[in-house]
Design goal:
This protein has 191 residues and is an alpha/beta fold. 35% of the residues lie in helices and 31% in strands. It has 3 helices and 6 strands; from the N terminus they run ααβββαβββ. The chain has a 6-stranded mixed beta sheet, with helices on both faces. A hairpin with a 2-residue loop joins β5 and β6. 28% of the residues are buried.
Length: 191
């Protein structure tokens, strides 16, 4: 079981990576679409969390499949059995620590809203049907003018609701013509 101290540090680093490293990558032209966002986030998390990952038997995987739900998460942080040596590594995952769903879009049409809402429904199903109790990070780079950068329905994060204490939005979008990166945290960690 991953300690609260380790979870809190991982959360702090994730939020910092978004507002510093991912923002810098975007502004330097290093991100184009969702796959490069995934690669950039993976790189920065591995670099910043390397020692903690090794010390706590943690791994970061892309395109991690949850067969019971037929879902594939963009990125996950997992704990693996310390006795793992041979065999299919996925069979030695002992805990899901964090799940990331990422979107990178410049479309201002109804399809964008539906993509985003579908990923938020996935988070809810992870908890309700997949029995996955972890932190959820929802990262969106939206290359359109926005009045607000949040996507989640406030009812989902109210006390007693599925997202309360678990969800963090990693948001980016154009506000008054300037690309803004921000963290909207509802997970009660590093607020």
């Amino acid at each position: 079981m991953v300690s609260q101290e380790v979870l809190t540090e991982i959360d702090r680093v994730i939020k910092e990576v978004w507002v510093k490293d991912i923002k810098k990558d975007y502004l330097n032209g290093a991100l184009l679409r969702e796959d490069s966002l995934k690669c950039g986030l993976y790189f920065h998390l591995r670099r910043r969390l390397d020692k903690m990952l090794r010390e706590n038997n943690l791994r970061i995987f892309g395109e991690y499949t949850f067969p019971q739900l037929k879902y594939r998460a963009d990125l996950v942080i997992v704990e693996v059995d310390e006795n793992w040596q041979d065999g299919y590594l996925k069979d030695f995952v002992t805990e899901i620590v964090a799940i990331f769903e990422l979107k990178f879009t410049s479309g201002i049409d109804r399809a964008t809203d539906e993509w985003v809402k579908a990923d938020l429904r996935k988070f809810k199903r992870y908890l309700q049907s997949g029995n996955v109790d972890c932190q959820f990070y929802f990262g969106v780079i939206y290359e359109e003018e926005c009045s607000t950068l949040t996507w989640i329905d406030r009812r989902s994060i109210a006390p007693g609701k599925w997202g309360n204490g678990r969800v963090t939005e990693l948001d980016a979008g154009l506000i008054n013509g300037k690309m803004v990166f921000e963290v909207n945290s509802y997970n009660n960690l590093n607020a």
